[in-house]
Amino acid sequence: MTTSKIIVGSPSFNAGDRLAVINLLYSYGYFFNENKLEEFSALFAKSALIELGQEKNKTIMNLSQWKEYISTLQQFSTQQQTQPRHILSAPRFDSQTSDYASGQSYLQLFLTKSNITSLLTTGIYDFVAIKQGNEWKLNHWVVKLDSSLVSL
Predict the structure, then answer these.
(1) Quick one: which of 38, 91, 94, 136 has the most CB atoms within 10 Å?
(2) Span 53-74, pLDDT tens digits
(3) What is the four-CA torsion angle of 22, 28, 31, 36, rounded to 10 degrees?
């Protein structure tokens, strides 16, 4: 697997693969918001690593630990009668080959409770996606929040 840098604005990438990776990114937010843990988990490669936090307070999880963490968040949301909304925007790619893609996407996380919607945080998702067979999967997912989620 070789990675090649993409020159911004260059059309030298497979457009079908690019759209598949973008759909993968947007599906992350949708499946989380809709409390569809199995579909959400299926977005990740079995070898995926997920990083949360900043430098000294960083947590690294494998897929099993990540599923448990997300399940806990979704259960909490259901108990509190809240509706989260992940908004991913402006996906950009650092590199893309026939079986590897990396880049970033901005995130905004909103929470609605009792018809009041609040912005919880913003940040960036760094991603590495790999192609397994004919499917793209997230293999490295780094969550870099601009502020903590203590207001949950």
Answers:
(1) 136
(2) 877 788 999 999 999 998 898 8
(3) 130
- Domains of the chain, first to last: 15-145 (3.10.450.50)
Tokens read off for 21: 């990776």
- C-alpha span between 26 and 128 (Å, rounded): 14
Strand duo 100-113 + 82-96: pairing: antiparallel
- The candidate with the shortest Cα–Cα distance to 65, out of 77, 49, 86, 89, is 49
Q: By CB neighbour count within 10 A (0-12 exposed, 13-18 middle, 19+ buried), where does 37 fall?
A: middle
